[in-house]
Write a structure and sequence with these properties.
Length: 268
């Protein structure tokens, strides 16, 4: 009798700990994990912990005991060596600055990990690092539904609209996309997101980005429907609504030879 009462109490506690369907992950976990009110500042703090954990690996509290290796650590995914660091360090000429080819940009030029460890995007607010990391806060803030975005303390996303255009010269394959996404999900769960919410977050990222030739999809409402696929190689699953003729980099012969060079480099 005692035991079953105790079990009932536990079940009730678990049910209470579940996010109501009409509250976004951002709003819910700002309250429950940070123990703070929903304000632009506090929602930005949650997303800062999330994105900085993605990049650095787990470094902070709250942490519920889930280790996160981090985006820049080399890994083996589906038997393939994955090393994303060269795309961020400027070692590869893969950044889209509007030309017909990629250029090299060092995105770790704002102090690298040191400011991230202090829960900041960068030391230098004119650095590539600052723009990239603040854009990631803004974009992922929208992806997890921050309701207090669009205020001076937590601006709306101000980066490139199409994730395909941003990433096209990286010619990323499925294992690279998988590592990127799985680090986001592990980081969220390490902060205390439930596994159910981790699954929702993961499914959304896989369905929109880690597919080949996804049709125009709206993520940032004011930017409208955009090409969002970041997975470009033949091993990426086709999007349910695939429209490959909208993805010229997939058919251009230069794209294919760039891929051959790139995969060699990233296997080093
Ligand atoms: C789920 C898929 C992904 C999403 C949602 C995403 C999101 C973003 C966003 C919002 C930006 C900022 C764009 C801007 O500042 O205008 C960005 C830039 C960048 N991403 Fe991703 N990304 C994804 C996958 C990847 C992967 C797999 C890599 C692997 C290397 C990667 C590497 C980069 C790099 C190097 C930049 C800087 C490029 C630039 O500023 O032009 N991303 N990403
Ligand atoms: C990362 O998380 C693991 C698992 O909880 C823990 O053992 C490790 O100390 C954490 N690392 C840091 C730097 O906090």
């Amino acid at each position: 009798m005692r035991l079953s009462n105790a079990l009932l109490v536990l079940t009730a506690a678990a049910a209470n700990a579940q996010r109501p369907a009409d509250v976004s992950m951002c709003d819910y976990y700002t309250k429950t994990l940070l123990g703070k009110d929903n304000t632009p500042e506090n929602q930005l703090q949650l997303i800062t912990l999330l994105v900085n954990t993605v990049i650095l690996g787990n470094y902070t509290t709250p942490n519920v005991g889930i280790a996160v290796p981090g985006l820049l650590a080399p890994a083996v995914v589906n038997g393939e060596n994955v090393n994303l660091l060269p795309y961020f360090s400027g070692e590869l000429a893969t950044t889209n600055r509007g030309d017909c080819h990629g250029i090299s940009v060092n995105f770790l030029d704002g102090g690298g990990p040191a400011p991230l460890l202090q829960n900041k995007p960068a030391d230098d607010e004119t650095s590539n690092q600052y723009f990239l990391i603040t854009h990631l806060y803004q974009y992922f803030g929208t992806l997890i539904g921050c309701s207090y975005q669009g205020y001076p303390a937590f601006p709306a996303y101000a980066g490139a609209a199409s994730m395909y255009q941003s990433h096209k010269f990286m010619n990323l394959d499925y294992a690279q996309n998988k590592y990127f996404i799985d680090q986001h999900v592990a980081a969220a769960e390490s902060l205390g997101f439930s596994t159910a919410d981790g699954k929702i977050f993961s499914d959304n990222l896989y369905n929109v980005f880690a597919v080949r030739c996804g049709g125009p999809t709206s993520i940032i409402k004011t930017q409208g429907p955009q090409l969002q696929s970041t997975c470009l190689t033949a091993d990426c699953p086709n999007a349910a609504d695939s429209e490959c003729d909208l993805y010229p980099a997939l058919t251009a012969s230069t794209g294919n030879s760039a891929k051959a060079t790139l995969s060699k480099k990233s296997e080093l």
